[in-house]
Amino acid sequence: MSNTLKLLRVGLLATLIISLLIMAFTAWQLWRQSEIEAFVAAPQEFESIPDHPRAHFAQGAYLVSQEETDAALEQFTLVLASQQGQWLPAAYFNRGNINLREAMTMQGNDPRMIPLVELAKQDYRSALLQQPTFWDARFNLEVALRLVPEDPDMDGNFDKQEIYSERSIETKAFKVDLP
Questions:
Q1: Alpha helices, DSSP H only, in 83-134?
Q2: 3-state SS string over 43-92?
Q3: Mapping DSSP to helix (H, G, I), strand (E, B) and coil, where does residue 114 land?
């Protein structure tokens, strides 16, 4: 009987220790979640950003409202690096919006406009790959396509001779065509 009681006592003690560890871990997770919720509610009141995609997304949205677009792009890129599927479409969409807005403020002949619109189109397409029913991304992609069309026949500034010309390098043994 005494061996059974000792075994039962050890089992109860192990159960108690495991339960306390689980309780401590759950309390830590709840505290961390409440910290993230507080940050999302008021990101301007915090000095440091919690390492969570939702916190980086909230910081990016706050920076966009403060017109700090470069810092906002960094925050949305951190969200994308986390690879958490629920935040990816919105992060791509917001990055595309930042680039498209900046391109739309430029003059039509500014050479920096085309790369920004191309980045925006790429981000909108990535958002649509993640969430095909994201209609805002579809609409903004259409706006970007109208700004910088991809069809050479629609764009009068598209120089076909320069793009489709073939160049090659000849060596002693063979000939290499360049794009």
A1: 88-104, 113-130
A2: HHHCCCCCCCHHHHHHHHHHHHHCCCHHHHHHHHHHHHHHCCCCCHHHHH
A3: helix
Residue type at 72 in one-letter notation? A
Q: What is the pLDDT of residues 55-90, one digit of tens each?
A: 888 888 888 888 888 989 998 988 888 887 788 999
Other C-beta atoms lying within 10 Å of the C-beta of residue 36:
18
- The pTM score is 0.68
Q: Can you tell me the distance from the alpha carbon of 25 to that of 19, in angstroms, rounded to the nearest whole number? A: 10
CA distance 91 to 74: 11
Going by the DSSP 8-state scheme, the letter that residue 105 receives in this structure is T
Q: Which residues contact 118 (CB under 8 A, 6 or more apart)?
A: 148
What fold, for 41-145?
Answer: 1.25.40
d(CA 140, CA 84): 23
Ranges of each domain in the chain: 41-145
How many CA within 13 A on the CB side of residue 3? 0
Phi then psi dihedrals of residue 51, to 5 deg: -80, 80
Q: Nearest CA to 77 among 66, 67, 87?
A: 87
